[in-house]
From TrEMBL:
NCBIfam families: nadE, PRK13981.1. The lineage of its organism: Bacteria, Pseudomonadati, Pseudomonadota, Betaproteobacteria, Burkholderiales. It catalyses: deamido-NAD(+) + L-glutamine + ATP + H2O = L-glutamate + AMP + diphosphate + NAD(+) + H(+). Pathway: Cofactor biosynthesis; NAD(+) biosynthesis; NAD(+) from deamido-NAD(+) (L-Gln route): step 1/1. It comes from Comamonas squillarum. This is Glutamine-dependent NAD(+) synthetase. It holds the Pfam family NAD_synthase. PROSITE patterns: CN_HYDROLASE (PS50263). InterPro entries: C-N_Hydrolase (IPR003010), C-N_Hydrolase_sf (IPR036526), Gln-dep_NAD_synthase (IPR014445), NAD/GMP_synthase (IPR022310), NAD_synthase (IPR003694), Rossmann-like_a/b/a_fold (IPR014729). The active site is at E44, K118, C154. Its EC number is 6.3.5.1. It is an enzyme of class 6 (ligase). Deamido-NAD(+) binds at N377, E406, K522. L-glutamine binds at Y124, S180, K186.
Amino acid sequence: MSHFSIASAQLNFVVGDMPGNARKIIDAAAQAAAQGTQLLLTPELGICGYAAEDLFQRPSFLAACDAAVAQVLEASRQWPDLTVVLGHPQAAQHAAHGRCYNAASVLRAGQVLASYRKQLLPNYREFDETRYFVEGTQTCVFEVAGSRIGLLICEDAWASQPARAAKAAGAQLLAVINASPFQMDKPGHREALLAERTRETGLPLVYAHLVGGQDELVFDGHSFALNADGQVAARAPGFDAHLLTVQVEATATGLQLSGPIAQPGDTNQQLWQALVVAVRDYLGKTGFPGAVLGLSGGIDSALVLAIAVDALGADKVRTVMMPSPYTADISWIDAREMAERLSVAYEEISIAPQFEAFKAALAHDFAGRAEDTTEENLQARIRGTLLMALSNKFGSIVLTTGNKSEMATGYCTLYGDMAGGFAVLRDVPKTRVFELARWRNAHDPYGTGRNPIPERIITRPPSAELRPDQKDQDSLPPYEVLDAIIARYMEQDADIDSIVGAGYPRADVERVVRLIRINEYKRRQAAVGPRLSARGFGRDWRYPITNGFRG
């Protein structure tokens, strides 16, 4: 054929729901076949969802995956002119430690035409693929509509050799199926890197990507197609399920691709969408009916509330203002106003009686000692107890409101403001919190209302309000300095001397690095939250709690 089409099924799967995932793939195949499409690409490990972690080591899990593959294979008989590329784990005979293959099968009309096993297994940051998978060794090239398609899985396309091997085996086009977790600016980076593959090989490429939230990972979609010169030929919208159809035309110089090109949005828009998807899918896939959070009148809780409403809808979000003796009037005024702007349930529960009761109970032991962070932490823990009680009674999950700057330095209270089920801003530094608040006030991407955050919340100096006239910057460097040090040390693995050499005061650098080191025990007990940066305090940060290395 001189002309055919490829559909990239950008789907949102649930890890472990193999029958449900198979149904989504079958529905996408039915839609593609109805459009007259000849080839359907589905995401990496789509049959089981990504990342299934130690489930891959359970024989019963692999058996359930095999049954779901058989379900899709049987359904494919309905569409004899459609070829389906299906990602799934595949048992490896005699492999050590129960490992399997990260595989893809090429299905058509009830037959398995070919199978491919991922060759390059990432084992860095959030990836543990050598823990679960055995490397494949064979190239896979199959024919669709008279054209030869070389199949690659994710990391295989991030290096040169597998793509070159596919071309040497006769491929005229590269099909790449993926599950590549989102981080800031990664969609553009992916396209640039894959453009290198197309220019190296002289082959066009279609990239099918996963979408949705899975614990602390977010997958952004943005599936795309590139022509042989590296130019974008088609692109799917981000952060939503979508079937991207790419037209393929045979020309004298090779295959030429074309299709709709969605715009990806700027960094803050992508971050906002990622946060919304993370909250929506964490609650939706785990079964929580709604969310509750402490609304303090501060910037962090305000941002979390705006994200939660965009993700869940106002009817599924409950807010509680819990003033203490140190809460400023403007805090509850601003909190009340924001709740009204977003039309969420709002109530006020004073913690003054409980605070006095705790101090009275400890008065004998604390006699002769001045008040300090102990009393500050008591207030945070009272609030955490009240929120968790509401969660227990009504079933809603508590969204914590601490940001990455606080998680790094330990400016958060165990069993207090850290208490909850999902840490929305866990990987968002304070400087970015302000940027996102301003961005959301200027945009209304989900139709829940423009300008949801009162301006004073954004402009007033941040404070935990746990003692009189307290300000965050009383005991921390300015946030632009703090966040830059954290990024260099924690995300880029820079050492103290190199950070100082970049122009940051040694005293600040020494202090921040020390705080990062000594607060690992807190982070180990923190709620899971979405990873958005090059490195978050989660599965891609594995440092010992007992640790004498200063760096």
